[in-house]
Structures are given as structure tokens and as C-alpha cells.
Amino acid sequence: MEERVNQSKQPDIDEVAAFDCSHYVRLSGRQWLIVAAALLVFIAFAPLVWERIEGFNPGGDYRVPYELSNDYWLYHRHCRLACEQGKILVVGDSVVWGHYVEPDQTLSHYLNELSGSDAFVNLGADGTHPAALQGLLKYYGSDIAGRTVLLHLNPLWMSSSKHDLQTTKEFRFNHPDLVPQFTPKIPCYKAPLSTRIRIAIHREMPFANWTSHMRAAYFQNLDLAAWTIEHPYDCPVTAMTQKLPEPRAPERPPQTTSASKEPKKQDMAWVDLESSLQWHFFRQAVQRLQERGNNVFVLVGPFNEHMLTDQNKVTYGKLKEGVEAWLQANRIPYLMPAALPPECYIDASHPPAEGYALLAKSLMDSPSFKTVMLK
Amino acid sequence: MLFQTLPFLVFFAIVYPVYLLIKGTRLRLPWMLVISYAFYAWLGWPYLIPLAYATVVDYLVTGRMVKSRRPRAWLALSIANDLGVLIFFKYAGFIAENINFLLRSLGVSYVIPPVGFLLPAGLSFYILQSIGYTIDVYWGRTEREKNFLAYAAFVSFFPRLLAGPIERANHLLPQLHDNARVTLRDFTDGLSIFVVGYFKKVALADYLAMYVAKVYGDPGQFQAPALLLATFLFAWQIYFDFSGYTDMARGIARMMGIRLMRNFDNPYLAVSMGDFWKRWHISLSSWFRDYVYIPLGGNRRGKFATYRNVFIAMVLSGLWHGAAWTFVLWGVIHALGNFATREMERTAFYVHRLPRTVKQLFVFAIVTFAWIFFRAHSIGDAGTIVARIFTSGSANPAVPLWAMAMIAAVWAYQWLFESRLRWFLELAVVRVLLVISMLTYVVLTVRAEGTPFIYMQF
Fold this sequence. Notes:
The structure holds two protein chains of two kinds.
Chain A: H1 2-9, H2 13-19, H3 29-53, H4 72-84, E1 88-92, H5 94-97, H6 107-115, E2 120-124, H7 130-140, E3 148-153, H8 193-202, H9 206-218, H10 224-230, H11 236-239, H12 277-291, E4 295-300, H13 310-329, E5 334-335, H14 353-365, H15 367-374
Parallel strand pairs in A: 1-2, 1-3, 3-4, 4-5
Helix pairs in contact in A: 3-9, 6-14, 7-12
Chain B: H1 6-22, H2 28-43, H3 48-67, H4 71-105, H5 123-139, H6 148-156, H7 158-161, H8 169-177, H9 184-217, H10 224-255, H11 273-279, H12 282-293, H13 302-321, H14 325-344, H15 348-353, H16 356-375, H17 379-391, H18 401-417, H19 422-425, H20 428-445
Helix pairs in contact in B: 1-2, 2-6, 3-4, 3-5, 3-6, 4-5, 6-8, 9-10, 9-20, 10-16, 10-17, 12-13, 13-14, 14-16
């Protein structure tokens, strides 16, 4: 009887010959269904199981670590947790994230300090220009619904056609995986069709985002093959320590100090607001948040106007007027504070700790912000 | 368009259902031709020109050949035309370079201007297939194909267009004419074959390529252990890359109800060089056997003639791979290796006393040594590698243990497959678990964009 069972599991010689291969990895239709089911279960549940295994308890000043800026799975997780806890979400690029400052010196930290609560949470992501930000909110910020959101607009992204992604010459910009892959067309983005299709599929799949998280968090952003070449004698399994990097500030470049010396005056090639891609994407981001029933408050700048020539300040002023007009027309509460003192800038847009403290204060003093917060 | 990329998946998802719908109708052949040309044009539409040209000329010439009283002249014309296309695109630069070298050596100041034509992917494969067809028609081994669409589909059938297998007319053409049935078994078998090929390419070949490219990119910077290791890894890389391609090609064809010939049979288990060539790139080695080695006399005219014929076939095979002296040397080494194992096979010690594993390792060592010349960018680089293997230090080569473990696993599978324990691999549970493991590994770890297949450049 046992022999008969064994025989039934093994193919006969003709079957092997019919397959005509130098291996016998041959599955029937039913076996393929089993494989498909097993894979689907794995793909559906592996990220969920890992969430339980990997400790993640963000404290009051938590921000996604700099090394994991492209780890959208972790961002999504951070975002979901903040929404579940009913926090006020501070969303934006590296200005919100707090480039050059420690986690307890960021805008959200000072807002918490001034409000005497831990209601504000830092959902900034380094390098998220508006084109990327709208993608971040679309694909990884789906939990942001019915919440209060402080959304930052950094005018730096409109300070040249390159920042505005309008140059026809290809260049590498931050977060290409978050920008629209097909429409609207971004002139400087020339990824091949296969890459665009891959990205479009990837960001819809939690599993794919989870594998990216694993690479970013434990394998130095390398795939397993490249990592084993770099670490020939290490075991990949033990590399998965379940300890995420600390959200430290990246090193401040030596030339950019908060010394009060007069910055070099520059003429920036501000783009026309009407034709600006970044402005188009920023408006899209606001509209998306509003459609999800969020109370959106926009903080514009403040840009380091001390580094602009007088003539350039006029151009920049016109851009601000355009932004303000749109915000007013759409009844979006906002604050467009005056530039901080010169010593409160490290570069064109990033303040040091004292700058963030001042900015938080001007927000807390703003009646419209208070109104939004009370909602 | 590479089989392992998303655009191909999209392409196949569109063309395959249509193929299934019309497979029993007159539209089948036109559809196969359209999708094959579309597939090829994706790589570059100019590629279509030599393909169409070679197809039309061979079709017309064989038509005249079967009616002519001087078929040999038509055969010569067809072969000359096919070789002309090959030389024009592939060897013109190499020939010019060598003539210039000769002229320089003779003190002649004239220099042939550099020639650089776009080498169409897969050119050598379809040209060889076309030549084989014409010779078969001349010899009467196969009937001349009257239906132009069938002949054009035979030359351009997309799964095998870029890197073979180099099919024979009497094997593929009847399948194109048949009222194709595609059974569920064809589909599942095709999928099984494809998945194994896919795993070989994306999880193994592309992985090993990282280490190999690093070392072979600048061999002067590495010492003997790293050079040896990179050569060992290249032996497996090229096997996984090429057999992976073939598996994917055969898998796709099988899903369409068409069986392409087997091209690999666990070549690194070969016990002699002759055995190796019965297991490696079978469609090419059998082509050279049938259309070069045997017409030259094969082994029928004594030992010297036999070795001469082997030598010619091997050198031509080397030159077929690429227009460079490194490939010629690769062919020479294979010929010499063939002589060596042939002679050893005459001894009772080699045949009866030497353990099979030792023979396998010996053949593997010869083949791997030859790969140095295949992979090196130039004769100079190959010389540097060989010299440094014997003269440089013994710095830690940083052996990627993960890669070694994967190679060991594949080798163990192949060894089991050819042993009495094969029944174990045939157990349903083993097969299912293997496929789940391979696919899980791929979805977990592979993220790279598709890299081209090595043999596409030939």
C-alpha cells in the first residue's frame, strides 16, 4: 500500500521525457494553484507579521530617520500610528523634518513645547519637494483623513526651473518613486518605461514597500545580492536586527553655520507661479488632504530673503502674492511669516533650533492657526 | 525587450490571449510574425532590416535552388549572402583592425578607416539557423518551405530570436504548420520551465555578475584568489545567464504549444570535453557538428584529420561568439581540451579507475580556464589574469558565502538529478516547495532592472 502511495507521487518515465528538461521542476495546474496561494499568503501577511516583530514606538519628537528617507513603508507606519493617536500632523520637506537640528529642536517639538502638549507629530520627510510630497500623501498618507494638518510650503522648490523640475536635461532629483510616472509629464524625468511601470506597481503594493523597508533599514539600501558582495562573510538573517536607526540629524556642512555674518546676495530665477510644476503639485496635495476631510493649515516659508538681492526680493514678493491669492481664494487658512532674522538661517530655507523656536511662536500667535487647532 | 522585465510581461499578456484565440485559424502565422517583429523592433527598429533581408533572400534563393540544375551555385549564393550579412555587421571592424595591424607591421602608412556598424541582437543566431535551413534543403533533409509566412516565422520566432536555441527546419517548421493545440499541460510545463529560467537569470546570473564585473573590470588590482574566484563565478554566471535565457525562451514557446530544442543538460557534470559539448549550447555544437565537422570528414579519415576537424569547428565556434582574438583563443583551448580528454578516454585508467567526480572536476577546470579568455576584455587582460593567478599574492578574495551556498545548492540538485536519488526530486512536495522557495526568494530579494543576457551580444 505504502509503495503504491509513493508510486502515485512520482511521475513515470514517459512523463519525465515529455518534459524534456535537465531538471524536473515541473508543476501541474493544481500544483501551480498551491504555489500561487502560498505566495499570495506570504505577500499579504509577511509585512503584517513583520510589523509585530519589529519594535516601533515613536516618542513625541520622533521623525523617520534620515537614512530611511526613502523608506515609505516606515513613513506610512509612522503616519498611521500618529493618526490613530489623534495627533496634529506637521507635514513637509526637510524644513519640517529638521535638517541640521536634533529631533528635540524641530518645529513640531517647539509647537508641542509652546502648546504644553504632545499633540504635534513630525511627519516631515527629507527632500520631499511638492511633486514628491503629493505622491507621498497619495500613496503612503492614506490614513491622513479627518485630521488637522499643518502643511509646509517651501518656496525654494520654485526658485529655479531646475528646482521646479522643468529643465529638459535629465538630472537626478529626490524621491523619483513618488512623482507621477506618466502624467503630468515632468520634463527632467526620463526614466525608461519599464522603470515607470515598476514604480507604479511597486507603490500600490505594501509587500514591495516592505521589502524596500527591509533593504533600507537593515541592508544599507542594497538588495540582498549586492549586500552579500559588500559583506561576504555576514549572514543576512542576523543582519535583520529589528533595531531601526536613530533619527539623528545628518552632519551639518562646515561652511553652513548659524553665524550672523551677512549672507552672499543672490539672484534666484524664480519660476512663474502659473506655469510652476511644483506649485501645481502643492495645490494637488492640499486638495487631496481637503478631499479626505482634513483641516489643512498652510505655512509658507519663511524663505531666507536676506540672501536675495533687492530686485530679486521684488520677484519673490510677487510669487508670495500669487500663493497668498490662491490660498485666500480657496479659503485655506495660512501663515506667511516674515523672514526670520539672518542668524536664524543655515541656508536658503533651513533654520537652526532658535529659528524653529521663533517660527513655532509665530504660529502659536497666529489667530487662524489657533482656530484650526481648536477644530 | 527582455523576458525578465515588466514590458515583456505586458507584451505577453496582450499577445498571448490573442494567440490562444486564433491559434486554430489562418491568422496564427501572420500573428506570430507580427508579434515576433514587434518584439524585435522594441530593441531597435533598424534591427528588422537585416532580419527581413536575410529572410527574403534565403526564401527566394531556396525557391530557385530546388528548381535549378545547379543547386550548388544557389546554395553558395545563399551561404555567401548570409555570411556577408554576418561579416558586414559583426566582423567588419575586426577585419579592418587586423588589416591595419598588418599594414602597420609592414610599414604601410595606409589605414582603413574604423568601421562601426550597429550589431543587431541575435544576428548570429538567426543567420546560423538560416544557413542550416538552406543546407538542409540542398541535402534534401527538409522540404523547401513554400509558405513565406511560415518561413519568416521560422526565422524570427520571437522566443528564440535573441539567443537561440538555433532550431532545425525539420523540427520547428512542422510545428508552425500544425494546427496548434495548446493544452493546460503545455501551459503549466511552459510556466515551470520559464520560472526556473527566470530564477537562474535574476537570482543567480545577475548576482554573480556583480563580483565578476568588479574583478574583471580591473584585473590588475586583484590577486590570485580573487581572480580565481571571479573566474569560477563567471563559469556559473554564464551558465545561469544563457541557460536561464534558453529556459525562458523554451517556456514561452511551450506555452504557445511549440517545443524548442533542449540547449543545456547540466554541462558542469560532463566527464569529457566531448561530453561537455553534448551538454552545453547543444543547438550550436550540433550545428557545427552537422554543418562543419561532418562535412569536413568528421572522424572518418584518421586521427590527424579528426583533430584537425575538431580544431576547425572549435575555432569557428569561438569566432562565431565574437569578433575578437579572445574568442578565437577560447575556441583553441576547447579544441586542445577536447584532444586531451579524447586521448585520456583511450586509457583504461581514465575510463574505469578515475572516479567520475574527478573527471567532472577536470573538465570543469579546463572549461573554467577557457572562460578567462571569453570574459576578458582583451588578450592583454586575459594574459594579466593568467599571469596574476600564478604570480600575485594571496589577499583575501572576500568570498561571498551566500553566492557559494547557492551554487552549491544548484550543483547538488544537478548531481542528484543525474544520480539514483533522482526520485527524490520528482516528489510532488519537493517540486512544489522548490518553486515556492525560488519565487519567494525572487519577490523578497530581487529589485534590479532587467540586465541584458550575455549571449544577446552574439
